[in-house]
Write a structure and sequence with these properties.
This protein is an alpha+beta fold. The chain has one domain (about 5-80): Alpha-Beta Plaits, CATH 3.30.70.100. The protein has two helices and five strands. The chain has helices at about 20-25, 55-65, and strands at about 5-15, 35-40, 45-50, 70-80, 90. The chain has a five-stranded mixed beta sheet, covered by helices on one side. The longest helix has 11 residues, at about 55-65.
Amino acid sequence: MKTIRKRVLISGKVHGVGFRAATRLAVSQFSEIRGWVRNTNGNQVEAVFQGDPEQIEALIEWCRNGPPTAVVEKVEVFDEEVDLSLPAQFSHKAND
């Protein structure tokens, strides 16, 4: 299986709307995803997805809408090097 890693920055009304919890729930539907999600001090949500390319693309598409209470204005996606030391469980990280 090919493994890729993407960092995603989501902007808009994404704080205080359950975006992180909803992201963890969305990730739980995929068996091959590692990474984390957190709020930034810049009023964005940042996520790192590592794993199967098709699953990551589906998650990025999900981020373009997020949970029903969010208003996503912008999604930026960055390619990153795969990190083999990344824990197997998707997690929440503290704010920047």
